[in-house]
């Protein structure tokens, strides 16, 4: 316990319970068990207030891609704070970091994407494109094209539009969501949802739900389809190879905008700059956040293709939308430095050519474990699907318990993972070393062994 006395620590816990409402948390239960207090981070490790060290297999919340404790970012932030801590981008003004960041992002997107609209978060980015898509269609003389189709078990944030676009039933139940004009189709989760089809045929089948939904609503009424290239919070669900090309075909044929939510997949996580590049499709709009700044400061945005951007610029006039912190100069400076580091250390290439394949080798040693149903991985984004019976793909009756049992054992042994039901999720920093991958696989194996023993009993 380096920086805090025992008394101060127990006091922090009590103060947290008394005054701090946590996101996505049962506060009564949490206050009874107490929170973990994280004090420090270094590389791929975090340290709690008892000095216990954890390997962070989850990069914070899918975001600390360059690892903790990077002084270059701190320096860039201090420089910008001293130079200009804040100015807005509303009334005919801009700031150097906002301009340079927009240019830098555009340089890594495909040739069709050349503009960025900044926000403070991924949720705001989703609210932003939701309005932008409708404004676009109105501007090109198709004002009835307003409906948006999204997916069950997708995640697009916690604002009213974000949570509505998301397909989490337990979020919709609180606060009367989704709002009008948002419709959901199925997800490409072969392991969980298919009976007998091959993954390829299943991928086509769920993609064609989009076509059916467009026909049901009428093409003249549909503005856009949104999906994460790989569902993150839903369980790192990698769609079958047939899925994305079919989705892109349908969007094009039926003239609706394709929106790729790149909040997790963007900035190297999949071994490409953006997740849609992995699947070879080109979105019209793409919300970004998380890895944009490696989480060092809050910033998000929407990457806007020329198809939409040219209309916004040439036809719309004012887009009556924006945030006080759109293009915040200090957040933009942190993001710029983050992207400089990703470029200089060739982290995207590293994920694709080196550490991604190395992690795949490690998973190779787990795939025959008796409670592992399947392992899905793209770059440094992966899931282990737990199963009670591998051959029949039968899952544990208490899926929550299965996942939590593995997760808690890993945590006790110094590895942070996330469990979404009975899928164990991995999203380590892109700078994770080979030795740290070995450690992650080793602790995970012990967690699986432990869960096997417990769940059999
Ligand atoms: C995290 C996330 C969001 C929301 O971002 P916030 O910064 O938490 O508002 C949106 N979309 C996806 C795919 C995400 O993973």
Gist of the model:
This protein is α/β, with parallel strands linked by helices.
Structural summary, described in words:
It is a single chain. By secondary structure, the protein is α/β, with parallel strands linked by helices. Helices cover 44% and strands 16% of the residues. The protein contains 17 helices and 15 strands. The strands form four sheets. Strands 1-2-3-13 form a four-stranded mixed sheet. Strands 6-5-7-8 form a four-stranded parallel sheet, with helices on both faces. Strands 11-12-15-14 form a four-stranded antiparallel sheet, covered by helices on one side. Helix 10 (199-217) runs parallel beside helix 11. The longest helix is centred in the last third of the chain and has 23 residues, at 434-456. The protein starts with 5 loop residues before the first helix and ends with a helix. The relative contact order is 0.14. The model has no long low-confidence stretch (mean pLDDT 96). The chain binds pyridoxal-5'-phosphate. Its cofactor is pyridoxal 5'-phosphate.
């Amino acid at each position: 316990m380096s920086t805090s006395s025992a008394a101060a620590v127990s006091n922090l816990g009590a103060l947290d319970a008394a005054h701090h409402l946590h996101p996505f948390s049962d506060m009564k239960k949490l206050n009874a068990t107490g929170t973990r207090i994280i004090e420090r981070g270094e590389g791929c490790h975090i340290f709690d207030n008892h000095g216990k060290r954890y390997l962070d297999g989850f990069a914070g919340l899918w975001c600390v891609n360059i690892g903790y404790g990077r002084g270059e970012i701190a320096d860039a932030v201090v420089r910008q704070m001293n130079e200009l801590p804040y100015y807005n981008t509303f009334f005919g003004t801009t700031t150097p970091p906002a301009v340079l960041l927009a240019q830098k992002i555009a340089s890594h997107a495909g040739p069709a994407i050349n503009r960025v609209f900044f926000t403070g978060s991924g949720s705001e980015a989703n609210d932003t494109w939701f309005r932008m898509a409708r404004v676009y269609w109105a501007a090109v003389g198709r004002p009835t094209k307003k409906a948006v189709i999204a997916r069950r078990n997708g995640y697009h944030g916690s604002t009213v539009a974000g949570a509505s676009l998301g397909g989490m039933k337990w979020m919709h139940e609180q606060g009367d969501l989704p709002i009008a004009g948002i419709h959901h189709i199925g997800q490409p989760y072969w392991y969980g949802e298919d009976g007998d089809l091959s993954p390829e045929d299943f991928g086509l089948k769920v993609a064609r739900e989009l076509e059916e939904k467009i026909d049901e609503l009428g093409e003249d009424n549909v503005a856009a389809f949104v999906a994460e290239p790989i569902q993150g919070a839903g369980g790192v669900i990698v769609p079958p190879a047939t899925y994305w090309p079919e989705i892109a075909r349908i969007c094009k044929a039926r003239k609706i905008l394709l929106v790729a939510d790149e909040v997790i997949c963007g900035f190297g996580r999949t071994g490409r700059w953006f997740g849609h590049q992995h699947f070879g499709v080109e979105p019209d709009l793409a919300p970004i956040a998380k890895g944009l700044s490696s989480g060092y400061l809050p910033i998000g945005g929407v990457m806007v293709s020329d198809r939409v951007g040219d209309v916004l610029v040439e036809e719309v006039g004012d887009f009556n939308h924006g945030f006080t912190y759109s293009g915040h100069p200090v957040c933009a400076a942190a993001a710029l430095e983050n992207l400089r580091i990703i470029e200089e250390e060739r982290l995207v290439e590293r994920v694709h050519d080196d550490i991604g394949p190395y992690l795949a080798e490690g998973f190779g040693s787990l795939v025959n474990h008796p409670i592992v149903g399947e392992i899905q991985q793209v770059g440094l984004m992966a899931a282990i699907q737990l199963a009670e019976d591998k051959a029949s793909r039968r899952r544990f009756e208490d899926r929550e318990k299965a996942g939590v049992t593995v997760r808690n054992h890993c945590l006790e042994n110094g590895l942070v993972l996330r469990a979404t039901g009975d899928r164990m999720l991995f999203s380590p920093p892109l700078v994770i070393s080979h030795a740290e991958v070995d450690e992650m696989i080793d602790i995970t194996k012990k967690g699986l062994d432990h869960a096997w023993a417990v769940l059999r009993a």
